[in-house]
Amino acid sequence: MSIEDYGGGQNTRSDVLVVTTNDAPGYRVERVIGEVFGLTVRSRHLGSQIGAGLKSMIGGELKGLTKTLVETRNQAMERLVEQARARGANGVLTMRFDVTDAADVGTEVCAYGTAVVLTKE
């Protein structure tokens, strides 16, 4: 099953469908493989910390931190997909993100879900 079979909606380099729902309309779950996750921890950059501190006093979006968080989430997702693929899955259901502080030196981002084998109905 390739990404073209899914009708788009995600990274075209991926052959694993990742959804936040409990099922994938148009597909049947043939086999549940189990939990998969992708984890990354990013340290805080001193310059962005200072800039964020100043920006928080006057308000507005913290663009540097937003960019870093998007990159971090993308890396966690890539690792989730790699783990699912390595276990023989072509889908991940109920994908979620968990974001926490890591000992006050960085941010931990975990993407997790249930790896499954899907077939088109």
Q: Which key terms come to mind for this protein?
A:
single chain, Translation Initiation Factor IF3, alpha+beta, about 120 residues, disordered N terminus, about 35% helix, elongated, 3 helices
Give the SSE map.
Blueprint: H1 3-6, E1 17-18, E2 27-43, H2 46-58, H3 63-86, E3 91-102, E4 106-120
Parallel strand pairs: 1-3
Antiparallel strand pairs: 2-4, 3-4
Description:
This is UPF0145 protein AS594_15855. This protein has 121 residues and is α+β, with helices and mostly antiparallel strands. It has a single domain (3-120), classed as Hypothetical protein apc22750. Chain B (Translation Initiation Factor IF3). Helices cover 34% and strands 38% of the residues. A 4-stranded mixed β-sheet has the order 1-3-4-2.
**SSE sequence, one letter per element:** HEEHHEE
Class from secondary-structure proportions: alpha+beta
Strands side by side in the biggest sheet: 1-3-4-2
Largest sheet: 4 strands, mixed
CATH topology: Translation Initiation Factor IF3
The portion of residues assigned to helices is: 25-40%
How many strand units? 4
CATH superfamily: Hypothetical protein apc22750. Chain B
Low-confidence spans:
1-12
Percent in strands: 35-45%
